[in-house]
Design goal:
This protein has 223 residues and is mainly β. Helix content is 14%, strand content 57%. The N terminus is likely disordered. The radius of gyration is 20 Å and the shape is elongated. It has one domain: Porin (Beta Barrel). An eight-stranded antiparallel β-barrel has the order 2-3-4-6-7-8-9-10.
Length: 223
Amino acid sequence: MKCSSRIGRGTGGAGICLTPVVSPGPLLWLLCALLWLTPLTARSQPAFPPADAGSLERQARFAFSQNLADYLFLGTLNAELQYSIHRSWTLLGGARYNNWTWRHRQDSQFESRQQTYYLGVRWWPWYTYSGWWLGSRMQYQEYNRGGIFSPETEEGDAFGVGLSGGYSVHVNRWLNVNFGIGGWGGLTRYVSYACPYCGKRTGEGTKAFFLPNELLVALELIF
């Protein structure tokens, strides 16, 4: 996916005659409810691994997750894989992909197209895939976004590092629901346009940035 191939083409991209504007309100309420319930959850959460932690570690080294919040944000496809290397540490890698253009009319559209790849680590104070966690990652993103909050559109290639944190809730031995938030910063080489469809350049160059990176409400399969 080369984002630049879409700029200035009124009929380019995956035209969809719907406007999936999703309010973040319900997700924020869900996150607040989780934080309110954390003391209740913590009482049932063991402070140390159970006696059979050795066998559990051998059986549950991997975790594969899908972030439902990404799907709600303009249909962004995503996947993440973790691997436990220690009682309190996991390695992780993941990707996001979005190539959709949402269009009212030929002269009214918005998008947040991207292909994103990242590698990182996650630290678990109790033990892996259980309770609170903190994470760090290196990330690359090719992006093209505009028309959502303003008509200005920007595309480019961004490199940076991210920090995140959250809480993983056990549903059963093989399934978690993972909540979290994160941000990232770095450098981007960019080109900006007056609107998503006109192709009129308004600037280009390299700049530093710091942006929200994710709102995580994920189903996590542990195996």
